[in-house]
């Protein structure tokens, strides 16, 4: 059984992906909820589940379309919960089953295309009636219209019918209820009037209503389908198989088989799968993704390694000290998942407007019918006026008001180099008053300083070695030496965490990191050149901070890097409030503390240690070079100069202003149209013109977004 109680839920689903580590530690069951769509869905599902006596607690994650349930001891069968959710209008099943691939986009496009094609043909026939055709000619036009409109509407309006039926079964009103009622009554009354030879039919109005609302739904769907779960990507960083030392052999085992005390073997470049201590004498690891610390970390035998570290010098042996849900990576994953859940509770402008508008439509139509029955006693006339009222008041303009602006704004941002990924991102970005930046990789980048007295021959070798590596430091060298001709090298070989070597005319040359990690050494035969490592702000960072301050934003720096470097960069950029040496969970607490002060926080970061903070903020942006986990956790990704973040905020503010204007236009349209409909002055021609005019008006206003 497929049910949903939220309008548009069936149209906006994306495939849910189950990943280990996303569920809370106390959860005993995981339910898939393919039909949840908004903050109201979260509240309803949690209320239904938490009301059941065998459930201690339940929490819903909207992005992953999951409900995590902590049940009383001894409970092994969730079928009763699934039935309770079905009674409330929500499809649910255990996470072990695989949901069907999402085809909602193509299905909705098909419904939209059929509605549009039928609407244009029926409109052409209606022109003859509006131009004065009468009697037999008018009846012929109506019969032809009926043959086109009835099957087309029955198919094209199915998304609204399904959602409305599910809502009614759950005992609730939803936006699709008046929409479905208006379509059904318009078609039914039109067919009756055609059979009876009446003067008015509403075929074109029913199709126009279906078409414009489907267009709004399709625009909204295109926004929602770009959202991916950051928690899923974070879990993907955990290796699925590892090498465990069993006796004298290395045996590949699933990560689930690893137990406390097991000894594991890791190659250079491998990611540490569990929290552990080092067995071998020493190793250097890259922990920047977890802590933001820009320099590699040296560990010796007996010191700790954490899940998510990258081994730079290997192979090495480690002994597991924490596995499963207890590892650092899993704890961070839970932080991200919890933050995603909190963000999913944001109610958009469209949801708030619909919560007021939906019951008002029903009430106005009902009062209109009762009033006309009381005055005239003519049920046919009363139904015609009530149908006219439903059609006139049905939310065509409201259905397009927000999606049209979102489509216009996100399209413009895309052309500027910013991909908006969340359907409510523009609204949240427009309300930002505090911007918190990560440092390493976001506002700064590491570079190697080429000595000014380095001879041209050595510079050519350095450029040749830099060309052969995609390491960030090598990319920086290529930019610095862009005018230098690279030397011809052969036998190139790169050692992860050490450097790169080659031969030039039979002579060994190499570029490798110094033992302290704070410099690199260019070696040409017996000659050595030291390239100091420095940290510089990225182009556009200073101008960005200045622009943000000019927009009235409070700007802060939040980093896991050392305090001295953080303060230096803060002073350089003019940022007075700096948090340094802050781990991933600490970043989340800082963001939460700022939000508790009543601030609307924008988090900008690029690392694994920023992912949870990105999801915990009111809104978030990641640079295009960020890790996948950070890009997917963020609401928007900027692929160009970081300075365009100010443009993103400015355009988001403009977009929200247009959204509010469109809602006012929709409300103004109803203020004028409702009295005409209630008093019986609304003809099918007036309804079609009014709906088209209001929809086109909000669309044109949306295009003003700049």
Describe the structure.
- This protein is of the alpha+beta class and about 700 residues long.
- The protein folds into four domains: about 10-100, Alpha-Beta Plaits (2-Layer Sandwich), CATH 3.30.70; about 105-225 and about 345-405 and about 655-700, no CATH class; about 240-270 and about 275-320, Calcium-transporting ATPase, cytoplasmic transduction domain A, CATH 2.70.150.10; about 445-535, Calcium-transporting ATPase, cytoplasmic domain N.
- The chain contains 23 helices and 26 strands.
- A seven-stranded mixed β-sheet has the order 14-26-25-24-15-22-23, sandwiched between helices. A six-stranded antiparallel β-sheet has the order 6-5-7-13-8-11, with no helix packed on it.
- Helix 11 (about 350-375) runs antiparallel to helix 13 (about 395-415) and helix 12 (about 380-395) runs antiparallel to helix 22.
- It is elongated, with a radius of gyration of 31 Å.
- The protein starts with about 30 loop residues before the first strand and ends with a helix.
What value does the average pLDDT take? Answer: 78
Which secondary-structure class do the elements indicate? alpha+beta
Q: Helical stretch count?
A: 23
Query: Biggest β-sheet, characterized?
Result: 7 strands, mixed
Which strand order do you get reading across the main beta sheet?
14-26-25-24-15-22-23
Quaternary: single chain
Shape: elongated
The figure for the number of domains is: 4
Estimated radius of gyration: 31 Å
Low-confidence stretches at least 5 residues in length (pLDDT < 50)? 1-22, 96-102, 225-231, 342-347
**How far apart are the first and last residues' alpha carbons, in Å?**
45 Å
Instruction: Report the β-strand fraction as a percent range.
Output: 15-25%
**Share in helix:** 40-55%
